[in-house]
Design goal:
8-stranded parallel beta barrel; TIM Barrel; alpha/beta; binds 2-phosphoglycolic acid; 47% helix
Length: 263
Amino acid sequence: MTRRPMMAANWKMNKTVREAQDYTAALLPHAADADGVDVAVFAPLTCLSEVARMAEDSQVLAGAQNFYYEDSGAFTGEVSIPMLQDIGVRTVLVGHSERREVFGESDDLVARKTKRAVEAGLLPVVCVGETKEERDGGGMWEKVSGQVRVVMESLDGPGGDALVFAYEPIWAIGTGDTATPEDAQDAIGQMRGLLKELAGDDFAASVRILYGGSVKPGNVAEIMAQEDVDGALVGGASLEVESFVALIEAAGEAASGGEESGD
Ligand code: PGA
């Protein structure tokens, strides 16, 4: 079973329209060279339509960092899935720990948002992960498995290509404190095992699970080399296009290395 690797940039609350244009223009030719890797850029709303327009005929998926699950109505400050599709957005982040922790998004809201995105055919990248206290207290798997279960219970027999998961331990995000490749594999391998139990062999074998948390060009290869890790969701090291391109190239090498060794 070969899963197509994915390298995703999460710009968070960074970049003007002009900066986004320059970045996207520099990224597109490199992404075109990166055969076999899905590239996504989660941009802030103000420059998202521009990224989507520039990336329209490319393999770069323009992504939104947030949205609401209703299609329209009295929801001041929100944007809906049809609005995002209207400007050419192809993927959405759901349940990022900053949305959960800073903006109080609940498991229930994350599940509803994921369901709406899947129904609309807009690829959700669903983030899960534990705090430092939870990990130190031995509660990593309880937290992560609970987050995965709530999302899967909201869905109606999705295919493995309908969504992507990202394991992002909160203590590793933006801290420079990356999980070891073994920790990443351990959590992601357990997630795949749970997904098998919840949604069957085919789903578990085909759904992609990314790692996120202080990924950079210097550590991406060993993380990507882990059996169950299918790519990365990258914040800080995605802000400079040269660094993000290096990450995409590393994902491409991991993918072709995987093929050579016959898996
Ligand atoms: P980081 O962020 O790469 O800066 O740790 C990852 C994320 O929040 O998705």
